[in-house]
Amino acid sequence: MASNHLYDGLLSGRESSTHCLLDVPGGRSWSYAELVALSGQLANLLRAEGVAPGDRIAVQVQKSAEAIALYLATVRAGAVFLPLNNAYTRAEVAYFLEDAEPAVFVCGSERVDEFEGVEARVYSLDGDGGGSLIEAAADQSEAFDSVARGPRDLVAILYTSGTTGLSKGAMLSHDNLLSNALTLVDYWQFDGDDVLLHALPIFHTHGLFVATHIILAVGGSMIFLARFDIDAMIAQLSRATSMMGVPTFYTRLLADARFERELVAHMRLFISGSAPMLAETHIQFEERTGQRILERYGMTETNMNTSNPYHGERRVGSVGFPLPGVDILISNPENGAELPAGETGMIEVRGPNVFLGYWRKPEKTALELRDNGFFISGDLGRIDDDGYVYIVGREKDLIISGGYNIYPKQIETEIDALDGVLESAVFGVAHADLGEAVAAVVVPLAGNELDPEQLVASLQASLARFKLPRKVFVLDELPRNAMGKVQKNQLRERYG
Ligand code: MLC
Ligand code: AMP
Fold first, then answer.
1. By alpha-carbon position, which residue is closest to atom 33 of ligand 1?
2. Is 402 in the pocket of ligand 1 (CB under 6 A)?
3. Which residues is 376 bridged to in the sheet?
């Protein structure tokens, strides 16, 4: 049988395992063999659709076991998985379909009509496993010989925005994903007895790759919640050995009186990442549970870069050490020169985890990925004498809200296009639940009045709801420095 680097690396030997892979509370439980069988049927369907190695399969669906089977099917078929946030509007999705030219697009039944006429073959898949995709696969054989794919072959494209506001597809290879998963298994000491409480979305690196790959690689189990729901979390924690989440998961747990020491005394590991965790949250968590959250640092382009140790000191405020095989250096953001130990500057990352580049955007790739393999992260940080990495800020203009990345430029572009608007500035303000929330200041065209509520309503057709400004301030002009650059720091201070 041909070798498929990622699939074989994650699942070899487990094809007939009756061990539980996914337990969907309120739904059913799936063994490894059952999920692999469904992925075989789906891979055969993709083949029957004429999907060739390297073709893109774009997916905007609710979280489900079937969606994981579709992901595995895509990998096995040698194709490229392109997951999309459920919240994206038709306009946002249209851009991804145009840019990535997928052969197949799978979305929820309720959206199929919106995508009539697109180039891709459209199938539906709903949160309960219903829809045309699984129906069409039902007649297919469960047996499928995976298509041969090597370590450097493309396996996924995840879109991430940029300072230009236009999303770029980060191209990830089979070995980017496999090498990182195996490193994390070791570093965090996962094994087949682990039961991971999984409440993350599966359209991002954190929920799809970090969480799911680790469990597949060790033959463990996941309690698979459709979304973060505090009651379900409290109900399921007693069955889990480990949990991964964004900081909002932890602040929400801490805000609930039922979340106490006995409930989690049996838990082996709590991991946080995707956004900075406040020291206050770390401290409260330790006071409440007697355990310290393990914080790690990653990105769509690089998977996981650094982590606090499993044994040894998990330092509050630090994202830990570079993972084995990953090099981190700190450079001068002005000229790219490496800075001496201890100084603060741009975090650069090199290793088998670092992506192949941006889809069909070689000029953007050249700006961020150096010839020597270092990726310029856009995060500012320093490394202390003991080797711990600290993130101290971001050079990229980015808001991280509840673990979702929101690029101000995209929102500013949409606001500026509205009638009566001269210009705008969008920035993040501290938010107790989400870490950061979106705020905007808008300058009307001379002689125009702007109603903030109406302005937000006008943005709904073009922007996913999580990107909508939660506060809009109308100003006569934007504060600018001598170079004409908008002073977002001033805005943050004034309106924060
Ligand atoms: C939902 N809403 C948000 C939001 N999520 N607004 C801002 N930021 C968010 N993150 C809005 C919705 O649009 C809706 O608005 C309202 O909140 C309620 O929606 P909901 O679906 O009920 O929200 P909720 O369940 O509360 O979701 C919050 C959350 C979720 C934090 C649980 O966003 C989440 O699971 N985030 C995880 C993101 C993640 O996995 N990031 C990893 C990226 S990978 P309205 O107006 O309709 O009422 C990465 C690399 C790495 O960063 O290092 O891991
Ligand atoms: P994304 O582009 O969605 O993959 O988001 C990656 C960004 O999230 C990084 O560049 C960081 O800015 C941020 N990030 C991830 N993990 C952490 C962390 N533990 N602390 C602070 N920021 C983080």
1. 402
2. yes
3. 348
Q: Is the CB of 205 under 6 A from ligand 1?
A: yes
User: Which residue has its alpha carbon closest to ligand 1 atom 29?
Assistant: 402
* E-assigned strand segments in 4-79: 20-23, 29-31, 56-60
Pick the residue whose CA is nearest to atom 48 on ligand 1.
465
Instruction: Give the DSSP letter string of 141-206.
Output: -S---PPPB-TTSEEEEEEE--TTSS-EEEEEEHHHHHHHHHHHHHHHT--TT-EEEE-S-SSSII
Q: Considering the chain, what percentage of its residues have pLDDT values greater than 90?
A: 96
> How many angstroms is it from 402 CA to the middle of ligand 1?
5
Torsion (CA) 262, 267, 268, 269 in degrees, nearest 10: -110
Residue 366 to residue 362: CA distance in whole angstroms: 6
- The encoded tokens of residue 307 equal 């982590």
Cα–Cα distances in Å, from 481 out to 299, 473, 478, 486, 488?
Answer: 31, 20, 10, 7, 10
* 409 alpha carbon, distance to own chain's centre: 20
Minimum-distance ligand 1 atom for the alpha carbon of 438: 7
Chain-centre distance for alpha carbon 307: 17
Q: Do residues 73 and 89 make contact, with C-beta atoms less than 8 angstroms apart? A: no
Closest CA to 10 of 215, 193, 196: 215
Per-residue pLDDT reduced to its tens digit, 349-379: 999 999 999 999 999 999 999 999 999 999 9
User: How many residues are there in the chain?
Assistant: 496
Q: How does DSSP classify residue 113?
A: G
* Tokens, residue 252: 């929400």
Local structure of residue 209 (DSSP, 8 states): I
Angle, CA 49 vertex, CA 45 and CA 50 arms, to 5°: 120
Decide: 183 and 210 in contact? Cβ < 8 Å. Answer: no
**What's the pLDDT at 496?**
85
pLDDT tens for each residue of 277-320: 999 999 999 999 999 999 999 999 999 999 999 999 999 999 99
Ligand 2 atom index nearest CA of 391: 21
